[in-house]
Amino acid sequence: MRDELKKDIIRNLYLFYGEEEYLKEYCLKQIEKSVVDDSTRTLNRIVLEGKIDIEKLIDNCETMPVFSDKKIVIVKNSGLFTSKNKGEEKTEKKGKQHDQLTLFLQSIPSYTYLIFYEEEIDKRIKYVNVINKNGLVVEFSYRKPAELTKWVIKVFKASKKEISMTAASMLVENCEAGMNSLLNEINKIISFMGDDRKVTEEIIDKVCSKSVKGRIFDLTDAIAEKNSAKALELLNDLIVLKEPVPKILFMMTRQLRQILEMKLLINEGLNEKEAASKMNILPFIAGKLYKQAQRFTVDVLKAAINQSLEMDIAIKNGRLDGRIAAELFIAGFCG
Q: Mean pLDDT per segment of 10 residues, for the chain of length 335 residues?
């Protein structure tokens, strides 16, 4: 997709979907720049949002552009690509409209650039297949941590700031998912730094809001230090943020598994860098896991993982309240 945009190849029909809003918006803006002049933007840029009237959509696409040879029609969250539509009452009129849209998507006027901008889609819906044959269907999923780390370094560099790979990976791991969230944190850091050039881990820790994943790391640190008061305080913070206890236990278990994997690799004689490469994880995560692994034995980690799984089953069976189960787990571990 981005390779086509770099070569100024623009198609007449797109379906954008997925959770990564930053990249969706970026590609949409690039297409807009190529298709619509600033001078005629208000006349030749049409945005339709919400449940769509098919006749209105087709009419907007077929109307000739004004003082230009191109126009763009953006359709946001139309509902045309979700299975919820299947439950709608089928009438003869609606059936004809859907057939009409199917035919239209196969022969869009050359002057019209139609982009469907959706949060999620059901790939079984026939329109998805029609667009795939006559245009381009693009999924914008969250980027992998390694890609995001490189992007963070690049964004700071554009603002004449320096950040190490370890600090950048710390920022990625501490942030909520999504490049928009990361960009918000980057802007906060840049504003805080003023004329200073180097972004340090201390600055990130001081300025940035921590994601659930980052808080789970802190919680595991507190447990490793046998600091039950701090661990219970962090658990309470997560519950106040309305994080479900089963999710907290799941994320703790996943981290304990990573610590166990790191511990086993250390026992095999691998150093931190070698273990990070073997586990395919970022430097900041490797450093945290390496430190945590020093504080546990293999047997303790295995027992903790088994206990967290038992707690999860007890919660699901109704034998234990979620919060009480998590507190018992922390107390037992710290004790």
A: 84 96 95 92 94 91 94 94 62 68 94 95 92 95 92 96 94 89 95 94 91 86 87 91 88 91 94 91 88 90 90 88 89 78
- d(CA 230, CA 242) in angstroms, rounded, equals 19
DSSP state of 195: T
> Among 52, 51, 74, which Cα is nearest to 61's?
74
What are the sequence ranges of the domains in the chain? 2-139, 145-207, 212-334
Contact of 127 with 105, CB cutoff 8 Å? yes
Q: Residue 311 has what pLDDT?
A: 87
Quote the pTM value. 0.78
Structure tokens given for 175: 């942030």
The CATH architecture of the domain made up of 212-334 is Up-down Bundle (1.20)
3-state SS assignment for residue 16: strand
Chosen CATH of 2-139 out of 3.40.50.300, 1.10.10.1100, 3.10.20.740, 3.90.1010.20: 3.40.50.300
Using CA atoms in the order 118, 119, 123, 129, what is the torsion angle rounded to 10 degrees?
10
